[in-house]
From TrEMBL:
SUPFAM superfamilies attached to this UniProt entry: TPR-like
Organism annotation: Anaeromicropila herbilytica
Name assigned to this protein: Tetratricopeptide repeat protein
C-alpha cells in the first residue's frame, strides 16, 4: 500500500496528532493515508470531535468536518466515518476504498480478543512497546485466549519478549522467548532466546536451555557468528560516537541497553 503522498489540498499549519502511534498528519491526503494503513489499529481516535474541528479549521474542509461531527454525535459506524473521509479526497481509487471496506467488514467479524491482538501487533510495529505489553497481557489473562492455537499463543509470548527487550529486562525477555518456543516451535524464538541469554551473560540458564532443547554445536556456532557479525557491523558503523556509545553500555554494565543495540543489528543481518 505504499504511496507517495502528493498533497493537492490545503496543508495545515498545525497537524492533527494521533497519540497512539505518535503520528502527525498535515493534510487530508496524509489523513487518508494514515487511516488506510492503520485500519487494524484505528478506532476511537476517529470519534474525536477535535478531528472534525481540525478538518474545518486547519484544512478548511467544512463539509466533511461538519459531517464527521454529525456522525460522531449520532454514533455512526467506523466504516461510515472512514468511507466519508476517504471519499472527500482523490487520494485512493474507488476500487481501493472498496477493498478497504472488505477489510473493515472482516475485522468486524473477528472476535473481540482477535481484534485486540491485531491492535497489539500494530503497537509492536510502531514500537509502542508499553501499550503492546498491556494489551498482550490482557489477552493472555483472558479465558477467551483459548481460541488461539499453540503457535498463535506462542507468537504472542514472542512479541511480549520483543517489547520487554526494549523497555525492561533481558532476563525477563528470555523467559518469554523460551515459553514462546515451547509453544510455537519457531526457530526465531529459539534464536532470540539464545541471543538474550548469551549477551545477558546468563551462563547457567544458557547451558540448561542448550541441554533441554538439544541445540547442536553447529547451531551454536551460527548463533555466535551472528553475534560477532553484529558487533563487527557496529565497529564499521559510520558514526564513531555511536560505536563508542554501544561499547560504553557494555563497559558500564548496562547489559540490557547493550543487548538492545546488538539485537537490533542481529535482526538487520537476517
Amino acid at each position: 500500500m505504499g504511496k507517495i503522498i502528493l498533497c493537492s489540498g490545503r496543508k495545515a499549519e498545525h497537524p492533527f496528532y494521533f497519540k497512539l502511534t505518535n503520528t502527525n498528519v498535515y493534510s487530508i491526503e496524509e489523513l487518508c493515508y494514515y487511516i488506510y494503513n492503520n485500519i487494524y489499529l484505528i478506532g476511537d481516535e476517529l470519534y474525536q470531535p477535535e478531528l472534525a474541528d481540525w478538518l474545518i479549521n486547519e484544512v478548511k474542509m467544512n463539509e466533511i468536518g461538519i459531517k464527521l461531527k454529525e456522525y460522531i454525535q449520532n454514533k455512526h459506524s467506523m466504516k461510515d466515518i472512514v468511507v466519508s473521509i476517504l471519499c472527500s479526497a482523490d487520494y485512493y481509487t474507488e476500487d481501493e476504498i472498496i477493498e478497504l471496506i472488505k477489510v473493515i467488514d472482516e475485522i468486524a467479524l473477528l472476535s473481540p480478543i482477535r481484534r485486540l491482538k491485531l491492535k497489539a501487533d500494530k503497537y509492536i510495529n510502531y514500537q509502542n512497546y508499553s501499550e503492546a505489553i498491556l494489551l498482550y497481557q490482557e489477552i493472555i489473562g483472558n479465558k477467551e485466549a483459548a481460541v488461539f492455537t499453540e503457535e498463535e499463543y506462542g507468537n504472542i509470548l514472542h512479541n511480549i519478549a520483543i517489547a520487554l527487550l526494549n523497555i525492561s529486562s533481558y532476563h525477563e525477555a528470555a523467559e518469554y522467548f523460551e515459553s514462546a518456543y515451547l509453544r510455537n516451535k519457531n526457530p526465531e524464538s529459539l534464536m532470540q532466546c539464545m541471543y538474550t541469554l548469551i549477551l545477558g551473560e546468563d551462563s547457567e540458564r544458557k547451558d540448561r536451555f542448550i541441554k533441554e532443547h538439544n541445540i547442536s554445536d553447529e547451531l551454536m556456532s551460527t548463533i555466535y557468528q551472528k553475534i560477532k557479525d553484529a558487533e563487527e557491523k557496529a565497529i564499521e558503523a559510520s558514526s564513531y560516537k555511536e560505536i563508542m556509545k554501544i561499547k560504553e553500555l557494555k563497559d558500564a554494565g548496562k547489559g540490557n541497553d547493550y543487548y538492545q543495540k546488538i539485537n537490533q543489528m542481529l535482526r538487520e543481518l537476517k
